[in-house]
Amino acid sequence: MTIFKKNSLKTSDHQRTRAAELTLRQSIYPLCLVTILFFLWGFSYGLLDTLNKHFQNTLGITRARSSGLQAAYFGAYPLASLGHANWILRHYGYKPVFIWGLCLYGVGALVAWPCILHKSFGGFCAAIFIIGNGLGSLETAANPYITVCGPPRYAEMRINISQAFNGVGTVVAPVLGSYVFFLKTGDDTKALTNVQWVYLAIACFVFILAAVFYFSPIPEITDADMQFQAEETHANTDVKPFRKQYRLFHAAFAQFCYTGAQVAIAGYFINYVTETRPGTDSSLGAKFLAGAQGAFALGRFTGVGLMKFIRPRWVFLFYLTCCIIFIAPSITQRGNTGMSMLYVTLFFESICFPTIVALGMRGLGKYSKRGSGFIVGGVSGGACVPPLLGAVADLHNSTAKAMSVPLAFFVAAWSYSLCVNFVPAYRDVADKFTTAKIGLQEGGVRDEENGAKSSQEGEIKKDDVEHVDDLPPKEIM
Protein backbone atom coordinates (compact mmCIF):
# COMPACT_ATOMS: atom_id res chain seq x y z
CA MET A 1 0.00 0.00 0.00
CA THR A 2 1.27 3.49 -0.88
CA ILE A 3 0.40 4.76 2.60
CA PHE A 4 3.25 2.64 4.04
CA LYS A 5 5.87 4.02 1.66
CA LYS A 6 8.73 5.95 3.20
CA ASN A 7 7.59 9.43 4.14
CA SER A 8 9.98 12.36 3.88
CA LEU A 9 9.85 14.78 6.80
CA LYS A 10 12.03 17.46 5.24
CA THR A 11 11.40 19.79 2.29
CA SER A 12 13.82 22.50 1.16
CA ASP A 13 12.48 26.03 1.64
CA HIS A 14 14.16 27.03 -1.62
CA GLN A 15 12.07 24.53 -3.54
CA ARG A 16 8.72 25.42 -5.15
CA THR A 17 6.08 22.76 -4.43
CA ARG A 18 3.15 24.68 -5.98
CA ALA A 19 1.27 24.14 -2.71
CA ALA A 20 0.56 27.88 -2.49
CA GLU A 21 -1.42 27.57 -5.75
CA LEU A 22 -3.75 24.79 -4.60
CA THR A 23 -7.40 25.13 -5.56
CA LEU A 24 -10.16 24.79 -2.98
CA ARG A 25 -10.87 21.20 -4.08
CA GLN A 26 -7.20 20.20 -3.89
CA SER A 27 -6.79 21.65 -0.40
CA ILE A 28 -9.88 20.01 1.20
CA TYR A 29 -8.13 16.90 2.64
CA PRO A 30 -5.16 18.66 4.31
CA LEU A 31 -7.46 21.40 5.60
CA CYS A 32 -9.84 18.86 7.15
CA LEU A 33 -6.96 16.99 8.78
CA VAL A 34 -5.44 20.16 10.25
CA THR A 35 -8.88 21.37 11.40
CA ILE A 36 -9.00 18.38 13.80
CA LEU A 37 -6.10 20.06 15.62
CA PHE A 38 -8.20 23.18 16.15
CA PHE A 39 -10.84 21.09 17.92
CA LEU A 40 -8.12 19.51 20.08
CA TRP A 41 -6.74 22.71 21.51
CA GLY A 42 -10.23 24.19 21.84
CA PHE A 43 -11.13 21.15 23.95
CA SER A 44 -7.92 21.48 25.99
CA TYR A 45 -8.48 25.21 26.50
CA GLY A 46 -12.09 24.60 27.56
CA LEU A 47 -10.94 22.00 30.10
CA LEU A 48 -8.48 24.52 31.49
CA ASP A 49 -11.19 27.12 32.15
CA THR A 50 -13.26 24.51 33.97
CA LEU A 51 -10.31 23.14 35.96
CA ASN A 52 -9.49 26.68 37.09
CA LYS A 53 -12.58 26.77 39.29
CA HIS A 54 -12.36 23.04 40.07
CA PHE A 55 -8.95 23.39 41.70
CA GLN A 56 -10.12 26.43 43.67
CA ASN A 57 -12.81 24.16 45.16
CA THR A 58 -10.83 20.92 45.66
CA LEU A 59 -7.44 22.32 46.68
CA GLY A 60 -8.61 25.50 48.44
CA ILE A 61 -6.39 27.85 46.44
CA THR A 62 -7.00 31.54 45.67
CA ARG A 63 -8.22 32.93 42.36
CA ALA A 64 -4.82 34.46 41.68
CA ARG A 65 -2.99 31.17 42.32
CA SER A 66 -5.42 29.14 40.20
CA SER A 67 -4.46 31.35 37.26
CA GLY A 68 -1.14 29.48 37.39
CA LEU A 69 -2.84 27.01 35.03
CA GLN A 70 -3.27 29.72 32.40
CA ALA A 71 0.23 31.07 33.10
CA ALA A 72 1.77 27.61 32.56
CA TYR A 73 -0.35 26.86 29.50
CA PHE A 74 0.06 30.12 27.62
CA GLY A 75 3.52 30.85 28.98
CA ALA A 76 4.71 27.84 26.97
CA TYR A 77 3.50 29.35 23.70
CA PRO A 78 6.39 31.77 23.03
CA LEU A 79 8.87 29.03 23.92
CA ALA A 80 7.30 26.89 21.20
CA SER A 81 6.39 29.52 18.59
CA LEU A 82 9.70 31.41 18.79
CA GLY A 83 11.87 28.48 19.84
CA HIS A 84 11.75 24.74 19.17
CA ALA A 85 8.59 24.57 17.03
CA ASN A 86 9.61 27.50 14.85
CA TRP A 87 13.08 26.03 14.38
CA ILE A 88 11.58 22.72 13.21
CA LEU A 89 9.13 24.60 10.97
CA ARG A 90 11.87 26.61 9.24
CA HIS A 91 14.30 23.69 8.88
CA TYR A 92 11.96 20.77 8.17
CA GLY A 93 8.44 22.03 7.41
CA TYR A 94 4.85 21.92 8.64
CA LYS A 95 4.28 18.17 8.85
CA PRO A 96 7.12 17.46 11.35
CA VAL A 97 5.81 20.26 13.58
CA PHE A 98 2.32 18.71 13.58
CA ILE A 99 3.80 15.37 14.68
CA TRP A 100 6.11 16.99 17.25
CA GLY A 101 3.28 19.03 18.78
CA LEU A 102 0.96 16.03 19.05
CA CYS A 103 3.66 13.96 20.74
CA LEU A 104 4.34 16.73 23.29
CA TYR A 105 0.61 17.02 23.92
CA GLY A 106 0.39 13.27 24.55
CA VAL A 107 3.40 13.27 26.89
CA GLY A 108 1.94 16.18 28.88
CA ALA A 109 -1.39 14.38 29.22
CA LEU A 110 0.41 11.28 30.56
CA VAL A 111 2.45 13.37 33.04
CA ALA A 112 -0.81 14.89 34.31
CA TRP A 113 -1.96 11.46 35.53
CA PRO A 114 0.34 11.05 38.61
CA CYS A 115 0.10 14.77 39.39
CA ILE A 116 -3.69 14.56 39.67
CA LEU A 117 -3.40 11.31 41.63
CA HIS A 118 -1.22 13.02 44.27
CA LYS A 119 -3.23 16.29 44.19
CA SER A 120 -0.12 18.23 43.24
CA PHE A 121 -1.16 21.59 41.82
CA GLY A 122 2.45 22.50 41.01
CA GLY A 123 3.00 19.16 39.25
CA PHE A 124 -0.20 19.58 37.26
CA CYS A 125 0.96 23.06 36.19
CA ALA A 126 4.19 21.41 34.96
CA ALA A 127 2.11 18.92 32.95
CA ILE A 128 0.04 21.78 31.56
CA PHE A 129 3.30 23.52 30.59
CA ILE A 130 4.29 20.47 28.51
CA ILE A 131 0.81 20.38 26.97
CA GLY A 132 1.11 24.11 26.26
CA ASN A 133 4.38 23.47 24.42
CA GLY A 134 2.64 20.83 22.32
CA LEU A 135 -0.36 23.00 21.53
CA GLY A 136 1.87 26.03 20.96
CA SER A 137 3.78 23.94 18.41
CA LEU A 138 0.53 22.94 16.70
CA GLU A 139 -0.66 26.55 16.56
CA THR A 140 2.70 27.71 15.20
CA ALA A 141 2.18 25.44 12.20
CA ALA A 142 -1.60 25.06 11.88
CA ASN A 143 -2.63 28.73 11.82
CA PRO A 144 -0.28 29.75 8.99
CA TYR A 145 -0.89 26.45 7.18
CA ILE A 146 -4.65 27.03 7.06
CA THR A 147 -4.00 30.63 5.97
CA VAL A 148 -1.74 29.74 3.03
CA CYS A 149 -3.14 26.35 1.95
CA GLY A 150 -5.63 27.26 -0.75
CA PRO A 151 -6.70 30.41 -2.62
CA PRO A 152 -5.31 33.52 -0.82
CA ARG A 153 -8.50 35.53 -1.22
CA TYR A 154 -10.35 33.09 1.08
CA ALA A 155 -7.65 32.93 3.78
CA GLU A 156 -9.65 34.75 6.47
CA MET A 157 -12.72 32.64 5.78
CA ARG A 158 -10.71 29.38 5.87
CA ILE A 159 -9.01 30.07 9.17
CA ASN A 160 -12.25 31.26 10.78
CA ILE A 161 -14.08 28.09 9.68
CA SER A 162 -11.27 25.94 11.11
CA GLN A 163 -11.18 28.02 14.28
CA ALA A 164 -14.95 27.53 14.60
CA PHE A 165 -14.18 23.90 15.41
CA ASN A 166 -11.88 25.23 18.11
CA GLY A 167 -15.04 26.89 19.45
CA VAL A 168 -16.88 23.56 19.29
CA GLY A 169 -14.12 22.05 21.46
CA THR A 170 -14.48 24.83 24.02
CA VAL A 171 -18.22 24.07 24.22
CA VAL A 172 -17.78 20.31 24.69
CA ALA A 173 -15.14 20.64 27.44
CA PRO A 174 -17.18 22.68 29.98
CA VAL A 175 -20.22 20.44 29.44
CA LEU A 176 -18.03 17.43 30.16
CA GLY A 177 -16.53 19.25 33.15
CA SER A 178 -19.93 20.11 34.61
CA TYR A 179 -20.78 16.40 34.85
CA VAL A 180 -17.32 14.90 35.44
CA PHE A 181 -15.46 17.48 37.57
CA PHE A 182 -18.26 19.04 39.63
CA LEU A 183 -20.06 16.05 41.11
CA LYS A 184 -23.34 16.60 42.94
CA THR A 185 -22.16 14.20 45.65
CA GLY A 186 -19.23 16.50 46.41
CA ASP A 187 -16.80 13.54 46.20
CA ASP A 188 -13.56 15.34 45.25
CA THR A 189 -11.56 12.09 45.11
CA LYS A 190 -13.96 10.63 42.54
CA ALA A 191 -13.88 13.89 40.57
CA LEU A 192 -10.07 13.88 40.42
CA THR A 193 -10.13 10.24 39.26
CA ASN A 194 -12.44 11.27 36.42
CA VAL A 195 -9.99 14.02 35.42
CA GLN A 196 -7.24 11.38 35.20
CA TRP A 197 -9.26 9.24 32.80
CA VAL A 198 -10.02 12.25 30.61
CA TYR A 199 -6.31 13.04 30.22
CA LEU A 200 -5.44 9.39 29.55
CA ALA A 201 -8.03 9.32 26.75
CA ILE A 202 -6.55 12.53 25.33
CA ALA A 203 -3.04 10.98 25.33
CA CYS A 204 -4.22 7.88 23.44
CA PHE A 205 -6.08 9.93 20.85
CA VAL A 206 -3.27 12.37 20.06
CA PHE A 207 -0.66 9.62 19.67
CA ILE A 208 -2.93 7.90 17.14
CA LEU A 209 -3.46 11.23 15.37
CA ALA A 210 0.32 11.77 15.19
CA ALA A 211 0.60 8.45 13.32
CA VAL A 212 -2.17 9.53 10.93
CA PHE A 213 -0.26 12.75 10.16
CA TYR A 214 2.94 10.80 9.53
CA PHE A 215 1.33 8.60 6.90
CA SER A 216 -0.86 11.31 5.33
CA PRO A 217 0.50 12.90 2.10
CA ILE A 218 -0.24 16.53 2.99
CA PRO A 219 1.35 19.18 0.72
CA GLU A 220 4.30 21.14 2.13
CA ILE A 221 4.32 24.92 1.70
CA THR A 222 7.81 26.41 1.43
CA ASP A 223 9.21 29.93 1.67
CA ALA A 224 9.69 29.83 -2.10
CA ASP A 225 5.95 29.17 -2.50
CA MET A 226 5.07 32.10 -0.26
CA GLN A 227 7.51 34.41 -2.03
CA PHE A 228 5.85 33.47 -5.32
CA GLN A 229 2.44 34.22 -3.80
CA ALA A 230 3.61 37.65 -2.62
CA GLU A 231 4.97 38.42 -6.08
CA GLU A 232 1.81 37.28 -7.85
CA THR A 233 -0.41 39.47 -5.69
CA HIS A 234 1.98 42.44 -6.11
CA ALA A 235 2.17 42.76 -2.32
CA ASN A 236 5.93 42.44 -2.36
CA THR A 237 6.45 43.53 1.24
CA ASP A 238 8.85 40.63 1.89
CA VAL A 239 11.60 42.52 0.05
CA LYS A 240 12.12 44.57 3.22
CA PRO A 241 14.40 43.18 5.97
CA PHE A 242 12.57 41.19 8.62
CA ARG A 243 13.18 43.85 11.26
CA LYS A 244 11.17 46.32 9.15
CA GLN A 245 8.05 44.16 8.96
CA TYR A 246 6.20 46.59 11.24
CA ARG A 247 2.75 45.31 10.35
CA LEU A 248 3.78 41.88 11.63
CA PHE A 249 4.99 43.22 14.98
CA HIS A 250 1.85 45.30 15.41
CA ALA A 251 -0.24 42.18 14.70
CA ALA A 252 1.78 40.25 17.32
CA PHE A 253 1.15 43.04 19.86
CA ALA A 254 -2.58 43.00 19.07
CA GLN A 255 -2.60 39.21 19.45
CA PHE A 256 -0.92 39.49 22.86
CA CYS A 257 -3.49 42.01 24.12
CA TYR A 258 -6.53 40.36 22.57
CA THR A 259 -5.68 36.78 23.62
CA GLY A 260 -4.87 37.93 27.14
CA ALA A 261 -8.30 39.54 27.42
CA GLN A 262 -10.11 36.54 25.92
CA VAL A 263 -8.39 34.00 28.17
CA ALA A 264 -8.95 36.12 31.28
CA ILE A 265 -12.69 36.43 30.62
CA ALA A 266 -13.17 32.71 29.94
CA GLY A 267 -10.89 31.67 32.81
CA TYR A 268 -12.91 33.64 35.37
CA PHE A 269 -16.35 33.28 33.79
CA ILE A 270 -17.45 30.67 36.37
CA ASN A 271 -16.18 32.89 39.19
CA TYR A 272 -18.12 35.80 37.72
CA VAL A 273 -21.48 34.04 37.49
CA THR A 274 -21.22 32.27 40.87
CA GLU A 275 -20.49 35.63 42.52
CA THR A 276 -22.98 37.83 40.68
CA ARG A 277 -25.88 35.47 39.92
CA PRO A 278 -27.79 34.24 42.99
CA GLY A 279 -28.25 30.47 43.29
CA THR A 280 -25.46 29.60 40.84
CA ASP A 281 -23.00 26.90 41.91
CA SER A 282 -19.84 25.79 40.08
CA SER A 283 -21.59 23.00 38.17
CA LEU A 284 -24.27 25.36 36.85
CA GLY A 285 -21.56 27.94 36.18
CA ALA A 286 -19.72 25.41 33.99
CA LYS A 287 -22.92 24.85 32.01
CA PHE A 288 -23.29 28.62 31.56
CA LEU A 289 -19.67 28.72 30.37
CA ALA A 290 -20.51 26.04 27.80
CA GLY A 291 -23.38 28.25 26.60
CA ALA A 292 -21.04 31.25 26.37
CA GLN A 293 -18.55 29.19 24.37
CA GLY A 294 -21.47 28.15 22.16
CA ALA A 295 -22.07 31.84 21.48
CA PHE A 296 -18.35 32.10 20.69
CA ALA A 297 -18.57 29.26 18.13
CA LEU A 298 -21.75 30.75 16.62
CA GLY A 299 -19.96 34.09 16.28
CA ARG A 300 -17.27 32.44 14.16
CA PHE A 301 -19.72 30.85 11.75
CA THR A 302 -21.62 34.16 11.54
CA GLY A 303 -18.36 36.03 10.94
CA VAL A 304 -17.44 33.70 8.07
CA GLY A 305 -20.84 34.37 6.51
CA LEU A 306 -20.32 38.13 6.77
CA MET A 307 -16.83 37.86 5.26
CA LYS A 308 -18.37 36.44 2.11
CA PHE A 309 -20.00 39.81 1.45
CA ILE A 310 -17.88 42.28 3.47
CA ARG A 311 -14.11 42.69 3.52
CA PRO A 312 -12.67 40.71 6.47
CA ARG A 313 -10.88 43.78 7.84
CA TRP A 314 -14.21 45.59 8.27
CA VAL A 315 -15.79 42.59 9.99
CA PHE A 316 -12.77 42.43 12.30
CA LEU A 317 -13.08 46.11 13.23
CA PHE A 318 -16.81 45.73 13.93
CA TYR A 319 -16.39 42.61 16.08
CA LEU A 320 -13.52 43.98 18.17
CA THR A 321 -15.35 47.28 18.69
CA CYS A 322 -18.36 45.34 19.97
CA CYS A 323 -16.10 43.46 22.42
CA ILE A 324 -15.18 46.80 23.99
CA ILE A 325 -18.79 48.02 24.01
CA PHE A 326 -20.24 44.92 25.70
CA ILE A 327 -17.49 44.04 28.19
CA ALA A 328 -17.79 47.48 29.83
CA PRO A 329 -21.31 47.00 31.31
CA SER A 330 -20.31 43.64 32.85
CA ILE A 331 -18.14 45.58 35.33
CA THR A 332 -21.13 47.25 36.99
CA GLN A 333 -24.07 44.98 36.10
CA ARG A 334 -24.99 41.86 38.05
CA GLY A 335 -27.17 38.77 37.69
CA ASN A 336 -28.48 37.76 34.28
CA THR A 337 -27.72 41.20 32.83
CA GLY A 338 -24.01 41.00 33.62
CA MET A 339 -23.79 37.40 32.43
CA SER A 340 -25.57 38.24 29.17
CA MET A 341 -22.97 40.98 28.53
CA LEU A 342 -20.25 38.35 28.77
CA TYR A 343 -22.22 36.09 26.42
CA VAL A 344 -22.37 38.85 23.81
CA THR A 345 -18.69 39.68 24.37
CA LEU A 346 -17.70 36.07 23.68
CA PHE A 347 -19.84 36.10 20.53
CA PHE A 348 -17.88 39.07 19.18
CA GLU A 349 -14.50 37.74 20.37
CA SER A 350 -14.93 34.82 18.00
CA ILE A 351 -13.23 35.94 14.78
CA CYS A 352 -10.58 38.21 16.29
CA PHE A 353 -7.78 35.72 16.93
CA PRO A 354 -7.80 33.98 13.52
CA THR A 355 -8.34 37.22 11.61
CA ILE A 356 -5.32 38.82 13.30
CA VAL A 357 -3.29 35.78 12.19
CA ALA A 358 -4.53 35.99 8.59
CA LEU A 359 -4.13 39.76 8.23
CA GLY A 360 -0.79 39.80 10.06
CA MET A 361 0.70 37.24 7.68
CA ARG A 362 -0.34 39.10 4.53
CA GLY A 363 2.63 39.81 2.29
CA LEU A 364 5.26 38.20 4.53
CA GLY A 365 6.35 35.96 1.65
CA LYS A 366 9.65 34.25 2.50
CA TYR A 367 9.24 35.42 6.11
CA SER A 368 5.91 33.61 6.56
CA LYS A 369 7.19 30.80 8.78
CA ARG A 370 9.31 33.08 10.91
CA GLY A 371 6.53 35.64 11.14
CA SER A 372 3.92 33.10 12.20
CA GLY A 373 6.06 32.39 15.25
CA PHE A 374 5.77 36.02 16.37
CA ILE A 375 2.01 36.16 15.89
CA VAL A 376 1.40 32.87 17.68
CA GLY A 377 3.90 34.00 20.34
CA GLY A 378 1.44 36.80 21.05
CA VAL A 379 -0.77 34.12 22.61
CA SER A 380 1.49 34.47 25.66
CA GLY A 381 -0.84 37.30 26.63
CA GLY A 382 -2.98 34.48 27.99
CA ALA A 383 -0.26 33.89 30.60
CA CYS A 384 -0.04 37.54 31.68
CA VAL A 385 -3.56 38.97 31.80
CA PRO A 386 -5.42 36.25 33.82
CA PRO A 387 -3.06 36.54 36.84
CA LEU A 388 -3.54 40.30 36.68
CA LEU A 389 -7.33 39.88 36.63
CA GLY A 390 -7.11 37.34 39.48
CA ALA A 391 -5.01 39.71 41.58
CA VAL A 392 -7.46 42.58 41.05
CA ALA A 393 -10.39 40.25 41.85
CA ASP A 394 -8.71 39.16 45.11
CA LEU A 395 -7.87 42.78 45.98
CA HIS A 396 -11.47 44.00 45.60
CA ASN A 397 -13.07 40.61 46.38
CA SER A 398 -15.01 41.02 43.12
CA THR A 399 -14.47 39.32 39.77
CA ALA A 400 -16.93 41.77 38.19
CA LYS A 401 -14.79 44.82 39.00
CA ALA A 402 -11.73 42.97 37.68
CA MET A 403 -13.35 42.80 34.21
CA SER A 404 -11.88 46.29 33.73
CA VAL A 405 -8.55 44.52 33.10
CA PRO A 406 -9.62 42.73 29.86
CA LEU A 407 -11.42 45.92 28.80
CA ALA A 408 -8.10 47.80 28.85
CA PHE A 409 -6.39 45.11 26.78
CA PHE A 410 -9.22 45.04 24.22
CA VAL A 411 -8.69 48.78 23.71
CA ALA A 412 -4.95 48.22 23.13
CA ALA A 413 -5.69 45.49 20.52
CA TRP A 414 -8.21 47.81 18.87
CA SER A 415 -5.30 49.92 17.54
CA TYR A 416 -4.45 47.19 15.03
CA SER A 417 -8.01 46.93 13.70
CA LEU A 418 -7.98 50.70 13.12
CA CYS A 419 -4.65 50.60 11.29
CA VAL A 420 -5.61 47.69 9.04
CA ASN A 421 -8.68 49.64 7.91
CA PHE A 422 -7.46 53.23 7.75
CA VAL A 423 -3.65 53.17 7.27
CA PRO A 424 -2.78 52.54 3.57
CA ALA A 425 0.42 50.59 4.34
CA TYR A 426 -1.72 48.03 6.21
CA ARG A 427 -4.95 48.23 4.20
CA ASP A 428 -3.50 47.98 0.68
CA VAL A 429 -1.60 44.75 1.37
CA ALA A 430 -4.70 43.10 2.84
CA ASP A 431 -6.83 44.17 -0.12
CA LYS A 432 -4.37 42.89 -2.74
CA PHE A 433 -4.67 39.39 -1.31
CA THR A 434 -8.46 39.68 -1.16
CA THR A 435 -8.59 40.14 -4.95
CA ALA A 436 -5.84 37.61 -5.81
CA LYS A 437 -6.64 34.99 -8.48
CA ILE A 438 -4.14 32.37 -7.32
CA GLY A 439 -5.74 28.98 -6.74
CA LEU A 440 -9.08 29.84 -8.32
CA GLN A 441 -8.40 27.49 -11.23
CA GLU A 442 -6.30 24.35 -11.45
CA GLY A 443 -2.85 24.97 -12.87
CA GLY A 444 -2.39 28.31 -11.15
CA VAL A 445 -2.54 31.87 -12.39
CA ARG A 446 0.86 31.83 -14.03
CA ASP A 447 0.04 28.73 -16.09
CA GLU A 448 -3.26 30.30 -17.09
CA GLU A 449 -1.57 33.53 -18.12
CA ASN A 450 1.20 31.70 -19.98
CA GLY A 451 -1.40 29.60 -21.75
CA ALA A 452 -3.34 32.69 -22.77
CA LYS A 453 -0.14 34.36 -23.91
CA SER A 454 0.90 31.31 -25.96
CA SER A 455 -2.55 31.09 -27.46
CA GLN A 456 -2.46 34.77 -28.35
CA GLU A 457 0.99 34.41 -29.95
CA GLY A 458 -0.26 31.40 -31.89
CA GLU A 459 -3.19 33.42 -33.20
CA ILE A 460 -0.87 36.26 -34.25
CA LYS A 461 1.47 33.89 -36.08
CA LYS A 462 -1.43 32.21 -37.80
CA ASP A 463 -2.83 35.62 -38.73
CA ASP A 464 0.57 36.65 -40.10
CA VAL A 465 0.67 33.56 -42.29
CA GLU A 466 -2.82 34.21 -43.64
CA HIS A 467 -2.08 37.82 -44.54
CA VAL A 468 1.57 37.44 -45.54
CA ASP A 469 0.70 38.15 -49.20
CA ASP A 470 -0.64 41.57 -48.21
CA LEU A 471 2.69 42.68 -46.70
CA PRO A 472 5.31 44.62 -48.69
CA PRO A 473 8.35 42.54 -49.72
CA LYS A 474 10.61 44.38 -47.29
CA GLU A 475 8.36 43.42 -44.33
CA ILE A 476 8.22 39.81 -45.50
CA MET A 477 11.99 39.64 -45.25
TrEMBL record:
It is a multi-pass membrane protein. InterPro entries: MFS (IPR011701), MFS_trans_sf (IPR036259), MFS_TsgA-like (IPR050375). Pfam families: MFS_1. One of its GO terms (cellular component) is plasma membrane. Gene3D superfamilies: MFS general substrate transporter like domains (1.20.1250.20). The keyword Transmembrane helix applies. It comes from the Eukaryota. Residues 444-477 are annotated as: Disordered. It is found in: Cell inner membrane. The chain crosses the membrane at residues 28-48, 97-117, 164-182, 197-216, 248-270, 314-332, 338-361, 373-393, 405-423. The keyword DNA repair does not apply. Keywords: Cell membrane, Membrane, Transmembrane, Transmembrane helix. Its main location: membrane. GO terms for molecular function: transmembrane transporter activity. PANTHER family: L-FUCOSE-PROTON SYMPORTER, PROTEIN TSGA. This is MFS general substrate transporter.
